[in-house]
Amino acid sequence: MAIDWTYIQENYDWLGHMVEAFVMAVIVALIARVLYRWRDSFVIGLAFAMGHFHGREKRDYEVSVHMPPPHLDGYCMWDWSWDQMTDFWPTALFLMVLLFFVIRRKA
């Protein structure tokens, strides 16, 4: 059975970003655990992953429109392409929900 990677890329790209973000948050949390409690470590990991995805989509937008430095207009997310928006927003919302549950958990 051959996997149709084109179909997966076209229809489930957002899911791949969520898995990537979660794994990244866990790795950063494991690194932060050296200095912080588990709960704080996961907050740091989730915040890092959210920032990473915003930065990556912002960079992709800047490159796609050939934006000259200082790239301040790249923060205008309403100008991003549909693909960039659907990569960033679902991932950000997923991480925010996880962050909500981590923060709400009793210490």
Structure description:
By secondary structure, the chain is mainly alpha-helical. It has a domain at 35-107. It is built from three helices and no strands.
Give the radius of gyration. Answer: 16 Å
Distance N terminus to C terminus?
A: 48 Å
- The poorly predicted ranges are none
Count all strands and give the number: 0
Global outline: globular
Structural class by secondary-structure content: mainly alpha
Order of helices and strands: HHH
Percent strand: under 5%
Count of helix runs = 3
Helix content: over 70%
- Quaternary status of these chains? single chain
Mean pLDDT: 88
Give the helix/strand layout.
Layout: H1 5-32, H2 38-64, H3 82-104
Helix pairs in contact: 1-2, 1-3, 2-3
Labels describing this entry:
107 residues; mainly alpha; 3 helices
Please sum up the structure shown.
With 107 residues, this protein is mainly α. Helices cover 73% and strands 0% of the residues. It has 3 helices and no strands.
